[in-house]
Amino acid sequence: MKSLFCCLLLVLALLNHHASAARKCDLQGLWRNELGSNMTLSALDEAGTFLGSYHTAVAATNKQILVSPLRGAQQHPGDKGQPTFGFTVHWQFADSITAFVGQCFVDRRGKETLETTWLLREEVPSRRDVWKATRVGTSIFTRVM
């Protein structure tokens, strides 16, 4: 009886590992990061590109924050379950643009996470001010829907 129980546990563990390995991350949908910013990504086209919108929860401006368009691409769509991707956000309320790069991960429970690094470049009045024109950071997004 004990060996049957062990065999059953082994089979269940192998099935669970196979199921989690087969899960693929899908970028399409609504995502939220740790600061409360929301982004919506469209389905990939045949070339692996996508469009979307980004509504930031934080900004270094006194202007009204507006939803801003984004455009991106996923590396080798459909080939692997945890793809790399990149996208740019053209801010509609500031003289800046942000480039994000990252990878989508799926955990054993099927939870998808986008781990990203970003560079924000703002317009400055002269080359003398270039030193303060670029910010770098990270964001972790989780699926909302």
Can I get a quick summary?
This protein has 145 residues and is mainly beta. 14% of the residues lie in helices and 43% in strands.
Q: How are the secondary structure elements laid out?
A:
Blueprint: H1 2-22, E1 29-33, E2 38-41, E3 49-55, E4 68-74, E5 84-90, E6 96-106, E7 112-122, E8 134-143
Antiparallel strand pairs: 1-2, 1-8, 2-3, 3-4, 4-5, 5-6, 6-7, 7-8
Description:
By secondary structure, the chain is mainly beta. Helices cover 14% and strands 43% of the residues. It is built from 1 helix and 8 strands. It has one helix at residues 2-22, and strands at residues 29-33, 38-41, 49-55, 68-74, 84-90, 96-106, 112-122, 134-143. Strand 2 and strand 3 form a beta hairpin. The longest helix is centred in the first third of the chain and has 21 residues, at 2-22. It is elongated and about 75 Å long. It starts with a helix and ends with a strand. Mean pLDDT is 86; it is low at 7-15.
